[in-house]
Amino acid sequence: MEGSLEATLAHPTDSSGMPSGSSDNDSRPLVTRLQKLLFRPMLIGVTDGRFFLGGFHCIDKQGNIILQDAVEYRSTRRSSPSPMEQRSLGLILIPSSARSSCHVDCAIDEQLSLLTLNE
């Protein structure tokens, strides 16, 4: 699911939530697909090795993601396999520059529909 979500997030939007430089007819399916991801559980990996799990709340045109009711998971040791430590964070913003992966919990038909965003 990572690649398909990245394809969705790669299209910048203007202040109305529409992709910049495109007409309403071009962008409406992209906005609709992104709206279907709202409030779904999302697992985001960041470059320092931590993971955040929370409900997808919103994304801005730069690709920064806000998760609600987020939980942070991090390794307590450098050796493998290491136990994971967790802590509740609440509402958090994850900058696009720190994001290394995104996974969304959704049905297989929705995953397939998101894959068509690359076309």
UniProtKB/TrEMBL annotation:
Residues 1-28 are annotated as: Disordered. Residues 13-24 have a biased composition (Polar residues). Residues 34-95 form the Sm domain. InterPro entries: LSM_dom_sf, LSMD1_Sm, Sm_dom_euk/arc, snRNP_SmB/NAA38-like. One of its GO terms (cellular component) is NatC complex. SUPFAM superfamilies: Sm-like ribonucleoproteins. This is Sm domain-containing protein.
